[in-house]
């Protein structure tokens, strides 16, 4: 079985997590094939200029469809919510931390006019709503590259996903951002393993490592994102947290200069109409 992934250190670490989780359930040996995506090949352009949402997944999807790989492993937040029927997310692995972190100091400790690195539209608009005095500059590249730019003084602070630092074992002084205020991206902290919808053997293996809690949370987040018509470059944050038989859904949406927030509990076995009500609130309808 051939497992496809990006060639970044984080992508390989996540693929190793998948292989260690799936190995007891897999018959054939698993080998890893790295594939360079458009988002990896061009680390300077704005994502919207190199294909936008899906820039880190598109080449992996193509390799799956043509049979060059059997499973692709991705960060769930990079996986488009609108995807062809040829591919199925067969497993969502147990979720890591979903929050964002700022380093090396808290947002409130940053001096007036400090330079903060982030290429996320969501992070940028939330940060500007908190500290409009800050200068926010684009920040592309893998985690090591971003930390290197911080260390040499290109930025006074940067914002990253906590899960990536944890999975790479990077120990730095970081400050977690409150998810009620700094609502994470849909799927943040989750690893998705996908296969061809017609591949029963791969699907059987993936089903055995699928985490029910992580799937419930991320499916709710992605469904709400789909209802909102959101894409990776949209200023929207969505986070669902399973608590018993309920999901607590947090969401933030920016409509021009207007910011709308919502935090509500819905049944674990929710109806799409429950998420449509949340979307209506966020759109101001």
Short summary:
This protein has 285 residues and is of the alpha/beta class. Helices cover 32% and strands 25% of the residues. It has a 5-stranded mixed sheet, sandwiched between helices. Strands 7-6-8-5-9 form a 5-stranded mixed sheet, with helices on both faces.
Descriptive notes:
It is a single chain. This protein is α/β, with parallel strands linked by helices. It folds into 2 domains: 2-96 and 186-283, D-Maltodextrin-Binding Protein, domain 2 (3-Layer(aba) Sandwich); 100-176, 3-Layer(aba) Sandwich (D-Maltodextrin-Binding Protein, domain 2). Helix content is 32%, strand content 25%. The strands form 3 sheets. The chain has a 5-stranded mixed beta sheet with strand order 2-1-3-10-4, with helices on both faces. A 5-stranded mixed beta sheet has the order 7-6-8-5-9, with helices on both faces. 40% of the residues are buried.
| Content of β-strand | 15-25%
SSE class: alpha/beta
CATH class of the largest domain: Alpha Beta
- The overall average pLDDT, rounded, is 91
Describe the strand arrangement of the main beta sheet, using strand numbers.
Answer: 2-1-3-10-4
CATH topology tier name of the largest domain: D-Maltodextrin-Binding Protein, domain 2
Structure annotation, total helices: 9
CATH H-level superfamily title of the largest domain: Periplasmic binding protein-like II
Architecture (CATH level 2) name of the largest domain:
3-Layer(aba) Sandwich
Shape: globular
* Helical amount: 25-40%
Largest sheet: 5 strands, mixed
Task: Report how far apart the termini are.
Answer: 48 Å
- Tell me the domain tally: 2
What's the alpha carbon Rg, rounded to whole Å?
A: 19 Å
- Write down the secondary-structure element order: EHEHHEEEEHEHEHEEHHEEEH
